[in-house]
Design a protein that fits this description.
By secondary structure, this protein is mostly beta strands. It has helices at residues 2-20, 36-39, and strands spanning 42-52, 57-70, 73-82, 87-96, 102-105, 109-118, 121-132, 135-147, 152-161, 164-174. It is 13% helix and 60% strand. A hairpin with a 2-residue loop joins β9 (152-161) and β10 (164-174). It starts with a helix and ends with a strand.
C-alpha cells in the first residue's frame, strides 16, 4: 500500500509539472505574429524589475537596445542601467535554425540559449553567469515574451538554480 501511495504521489507530481510547463505552440494562432527580425531590429527600450521569490522588488532597470540583422542572424546590443546606478552590457548573437527554432550566445551566457517562436510568443531558455557578492552564480532562465502590438512586447522570466525559483524578471519592451 505504501509503495502504491508513493507511486501515485509521483505520478500526480509529474502530471502537475507537465500541466504547468506552458508550451509556446499553444500561442501559434495568436496575432500579431512575432518576427524577431522585425521587432528586434533598430532601436528599442525596455523597463523592468527583478522580484525575489516572495514578490519583493529587488532591482529596477532600464534597457536601451539596438538590433541589427543580416538574414536569419542578428545582433542585439543591450545596455542596462539599474536603479542603484550600476550599468551592464550584454550583446546577443541570435540565429534562426533550419527547423525554425532559435539559438543565441552572449558573453555571460553559458552554452547556447535555445528558443522557439509561435504566433505572438517566444519561449527562450538559457543559463546566465550572474555576479553575486564577488562570486559568479550560474542560474537558469525560463524566458517568455509576448508581442502585444507592433510597438509593445511583454516579457516574464523565471530565474532558478538547482530547480529552486530565485525570483522573476518582468520587462516591458517598447519600439518607437
Amino acid at each position: 500500500m505504501k509503495t502504491l501511495l508513493t507511486l501515485l504521489t509521483l505520478l500526480f507530481c509529474f502530471t502537475l509539472a507537465a500541466c504547468a510547463s506552458s508550451d509556446v505552440e499553444q500561442y501559434a494562432a495568436e496575432q500579431p505574429a512575432l518576427s524577431l527580425q522585425d521587432y528586434l531590429n533598430g532601436e528599442l527600450q525596455a523597463w523592468g524589475m527583478f522580484q525575489d521569490r516572495s514578490g519583493k522588488v529587488i532591482k529596477r532597470f532600464h534597457v536601451q537596445m539596438t538590433g541589427q540583422w543580416q538574414g536569419d542572424t542578428g545582433t542585439l546590443d543591450e545596455r542596462f542601467t539599474y536603479s542603484d546606478g550600476t550599468t551592464e552590457r550584454r550583446v546577443w548573437t541570435l540565429a534562426r535554425q533550419s527547423d525554425g527554432s532559435w539559438e543565441g550566445t552572449a558573453d555571460d551566457v553559458e552554452g547556447i540559449a535555445t528558443g522557439k517562436v509561435a504566433g505572438n510568443a517566444f519561449h527562450w531558455a538559457y543559463r546566465l553567469r550572474l555576479p553575486v557578492d564577488g562570486r559568479t552564480w550560474v542560474v537558469d532562465l525560463d524566458d517568455r515574451m509576448y508581442l502585444i502590438d507592433d510597438k509593445v512586447m511583454l516579457n516574464r522570466a523565471i530565474m532558478s538554480k538547482w530547480g529552486i525559483t530565485l525570483g522573476s524578471i518582468t520587462l516591458n519592451f517598447y519600439k518607437p
